[in-house]
Amino acid sequence: MRFRARNLFVYIIMALAVFGIFYQLLFDTAQLFTYILMTAGFAAILFGIFYVFMRKRGTGGISKEYRKAVKQSRRKYGNAVPNKRMYQATARKQRKQNAQPGKSKSKRNAAHLRVIDGKKDKKKNRASF
Question: Could you tell me which residues belong to the region Disordered (predicted)?
Fold first, then answer.
């Protein structure tokens, strides 16, 4: 019962709002547009203020945990910033390797991986378990 009374109240308020908008649209159109423009301007000003304050407080979407991890990593490994020369040297090396089509790379097996041969032909006897 309480839920229906609340819904009825909301519907009455919405109906009065629609009636008021149509009434102003028919009899005082200039004032309606003035109210609409003032409301839009006020909302834009509030949004601008909110945006400026939140932008100064935040760090561009980087979380606190990430910044803490970066700081810890820099303490451990040093503050090594990659430079332009390093990227240019690796790019030259890759171009030279791609330019020599006659040479093929020799495949090497990874040292930490090994194949374990199992006894695949022997079937398990389930009765012994």
Answer: 84-129
